[in-house]
Amino acid sequence: MSTKSFDVCVSGSGAVARTLALALAADGWRVAWAHLAPGEQGANGPDIRTYALNARSVALLDRLRIWPQLRAHATPVQEMQIRGDGRGHLAFTAWQQCVPELAWIVDAQALERLLGEALRFAPRVQSVPALSHAGADVDADLLAICEGKLSASRAALGVEFQRSDYGHWGVAARLKASRPHQGVARQWFRSPDVLALLPFHDPDPVASYGLVWSLPKARAEQMLALSPEQFEAALNQAVADADPDAATVVGDLALASSVAAWPLALARAERWSGPGWVLLGDAAHQVHPLSGQGLNLGLADVDTLALVLAQSRSAEPWRLAGDERLMRRYARRREWPTRAMSGVTDGLLHLFADERAPLRELRNTGMALLDQMSPVKRWLVGRALDA
Ligand SMILES: Cc1cc2nc3c(=O)[nH]c(=O)nc-3n(C[C@H](O)[C@H](O)[C@H](O)COP(=O)(O)OP(=O)(O)OC[C@H]3O[C@@H](n4cnc5c(N)ncnc54)[C@H](O)[C@@H]3O)c2cc1C
């Protein structure tokens, strides 16, 4: 029997913390949500990112009754076209994969806002100020740390965050195109940069995109310093260089938002759990956004932790929420899926970063071959749908 005021203290202010607090409260746990006020989160303006959410994330948000409202801010992806820096080409369609859609592209800001509104009315969730200092005592059996990549609570626990910097920044913006996107997500591996256009419905219901462009840091800084007109010219040129058909399929791209950038790294905490504490989301692992899986991995962490706790409550009711054995169970279940996803994205990035001609030929041939192999493609999509 717990002597604490709360079963779980969820520390963090992003989508992973919010979803976890809601999921645990829905399962009947007493939750303290320790978060920063909006002005304290260090962002310079509204988050202009769009996220690709997979089927598992959507199912979780649906169970928490967030999805019915978020759907109004989401666009389904019916097809994904990936091009290499030669004749390599890979296409996935929802129809071939026998799924209604490959992913949903959602507005990052709308997701956090809707989660925040649901938390205000959630029974069993008490909103409390962020922990006063790293390592502060919490009046809960479990401290669930969802503080993102710079987590101070993780550092206070002495957990090392093994980080390898890509030397790239992820440049993001909202775009409007002169041609309809038709639900097609496009990605070009341009060596060394990777450019992705995610179909979206805002501001134009049928011809908007979310841009995610991974560029070497120096080039990203140059892009950020450009005027909107210069940025648009450079972007349209990059797309035209990457794809001779771009003019007909994408048309002209114009900015529909400000431009922002994030430094990109591959990172992983050396331990994800201990007695009375656990790490989730970017506080535990960070991947390159080329696969659009960072948040999906974080939401899968949430789903798994909620399940481990729920199973234990019915099968081993004597265990408290922070029981180290339960936390190890959670960490074991998340080990392989996150390692696999980090490995695939990191491998692809390194493969396409190498400018040597034989390697270039090999990777493009590999892509073309993979495109012919339906079972392998189905397996790859299966992994991406269920991070
Ligand atoms: C350009 C770009 C595009 C991306 N696209 C995708 C995509 O398409 N699909 C996808 O799945 N992922 C994508 N990602 C990854 C995704 O953004 C992250 O994986 C996700 O935001 C991680 O969520 P989080 O809640 O764990 O961490 P964060 O979003 O970093 O949130 C943590 C929050 O906690 C706050 N905080 C820190 N310390 C404390 C404290 N002590 N107390 C309270 N709060 C604290 C931080 O200020 C922050 O607001 C993308 C990333 C980038 C950079």
Tell me the structural class. alpha/beta
**Mind telling me the C-alpha Rg?**
21 Å
User: Architecture of the domain at 6-48 and 57-73 and 108-164 and 266-357 and 377-385, CATH level 2?
Assistant: 3-Layer(bba) Sandwich
Unreliable parts = none
Query: How is the main sheet built?
Result: 9 strands, mixed
The percent of residues in helical segments reads 40-55%
Proportion of strand residues:
25-35%
- First and last CA, distance: 34 Å
CATH topology of the domain at 6-48 and 57-73 and 108-164 and 266-357 and 377-385: FAD/NAD(P)-binding domain
What's the name of the CATH homologous superfamily of the domain at 6-48 and 57-73 and 108-164 and 266-357 and 377-385? Answer: FAD/NAD(P)-binding domain
Shape: globular
State the name of the first-level CATH class of the domain at 6-48 and 57-73 and 108-164 and 266-357 and 377-385.
Answer: Alpha Beta
Task: Name the bound molecules.
Answer: flavin-adenine dinucleotide
Helix tally equals 13
Please tally the β strands and state the result: 18
The average pLDDT score comes to 90
